[in-house]
Q: What sequence folds into this?
């Protein structure tokens, strides 16, 4: 079992650009959540997807959007990148509402210059 | 005020020491609590759940005090391999398994 996989592992983008990050959940998991972790901070919840719908959203602007595909994999899109978007982006998968079984991917480290 | 608050540390302790971390939460609707461990530049991993009755796993003991909205983690006989950031997590089961993290407490165990 490959667990939760994210791609790419590292990414450098310029202010104003757009970025897409990808996540493949652990086998048997149908729910995907995305978190942003700035340096020295804990992860902050961005949103959660289940059955291809955004189920809940944290306090992030509309520049952050996502998608879930029929195979449960997910994408996080960020438009009009700001320097403050530089962070580790973490994907977590779980069975629906089973937070004790949430597993995180290794993350994508995004640097905006 | 942050929903989950922790002392960021760092806590520098010698090998074999006992160290305790504290965490407070402000949302009284929070119903489930966890400690996660995060190694440098890695993803968080679940360390243990936290219950009012206390929860022990080897050298690790977690405790929840709902009246004070306070969570603790005790590590006995610290090992070099315990060096990491420890994240306190609250879950409000009304919000569909969203994990609310504290900023984390950094622990450095030295020889």
A:
């Amino acid at each position: 079992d490959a667990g939760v996989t994210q791609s790419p592992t590292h990414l450098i983008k310029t202010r104003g650009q757009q970025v897409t990050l990808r996540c493949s959940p652990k086998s048997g998991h149908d729910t995907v959540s995305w978190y942003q972790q700035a340096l020295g901070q804990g992860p902050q919840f961005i949103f959660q997807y289940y059955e291809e719908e955004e189920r809940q959203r944290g306090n992030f602007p509309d520049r952050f959007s996502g998608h879930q595909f029929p195979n449960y994999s997910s994408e996080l899109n960020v438009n009009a990148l700001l320097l403050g978007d530089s962070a580790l982006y973490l994907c977590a998968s779980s069975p629906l509402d089973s937070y004790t079984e949430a597993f995180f991917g290794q993350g994508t480290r995004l640097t905006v210059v | 005020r942050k929903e989950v608050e922790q002392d960021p540390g760092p806590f520098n302790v010698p090998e074999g020491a006992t160290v305790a971390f504290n965490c407070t939460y402000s949302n009284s609707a929070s119903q489930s609590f966890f400690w996660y461990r995060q190694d440098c530049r890695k993803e968080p991993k679940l360390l243990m759940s936290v219950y009012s009755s206390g929860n022990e796993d080897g050298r690790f003991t977690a405790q929840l005090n709902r009246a004070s909205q306070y969570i603790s983690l005790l590590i006995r006989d610290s090992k070099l391999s315990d060096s990491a950031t420890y994240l306190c997590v609250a879950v409000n089961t009304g919000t569909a398994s969203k994990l609310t993290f504290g900023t984390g407490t950094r622990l450095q165990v030295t020889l």
Q: What stands out?
A: The interface with chain B takes residues 31, 33, 35, 40-45, 48, 55-56, 58, 88, 90, 92, 94, 96-100, 102, 104-107, 109 of chain A (CB under 8 Å). The radius of gyration of chain A is 13 Å. Residues 18 and 79 of chain A are 4 Å apart (CA to CA).
